[in-house]
Amino acid sequence: xxxxxxxxxxxxxxxxxxxxxxxxxxxxxxxxxxxxxxxxxxxxxxxxxxxxxxxxxxxxxxxxxxxxxxxxxxxxxxxxxxxxxxxxxxxxxxxxxxxxxxxxxxxxxxxx
Amino acid sequence: xxxxxxxxxxxxxxxxxxxxxxxxxxxxxxxxxxxxxxxxxxxxxxxxxxxxxxxxxxxxxxxxxxxxxxxxxxxxxxxxxxxxxxxxxxxxxxxxxxxxxxxxxxxxxxxxxxxxxx
Lengths: 112, 118
Fold this sequence. Notes:
The structure holds 2 protein chains of 2 kinds. Chain A is mainly β. Chain A is about 0% helix and about 60% strand. Chain A is globular, with a radius of gyration of 14 Å. Chain B is built from no helices and 11 strands. In chain B, a hairpin with a 2-residue loop joins strand 5 (about 40-50) and strand 6 (about 55). The chains are: A mainly beta, B mainly beta. Chains A and B meet through strand 4, strand 5, strand 9 and strand 10 of A and strand 5 and strand 10 of B.
């Protein structure tokens, strides 16, 4: 069974600091996603990572994928308050009827 | 372009009642997904349709839950009879193609239906 583990689950950080969220998954996967969810809101797609070594950046967020280690990271650079949200990674397996699993989410709070 | 549209946004009803949640996917998207989100269990995939056909319903919790997609622009998730433990936020998502190698299209989520069963 495909399992997706994120850590940390809760993260409180000061503005201007850097931090990394980790996403481990248990079986070979074909695509990894990062989503953002604001309280009471929907999920917004941030990144889709397709291959080993893929790196994508958008503003202060950078995501990478290591398929051999079954690990993805979401790195936050010089955090600002607007980044406060819950971040989910999700993994799907193409050849298993799109069995897609989400991590538990990392609730990020950026304090002034 | 309109996103995924779900209705109602909020639903409060008494246990035992039938509940119907509705979803209109993004036009041209041929994959549709229903998810349930709770604090205890996080985000769970309930069922997935491709070209209006249910592909995988292994996430549907029990027979009280059923989902249909009569055409490419509409899907329903029905709970009958509803129970308090069904209280959750239910999301519908769509994507423009079935999972294909090297496809970079994420799933687009609706705003969700917040369901409370009393």
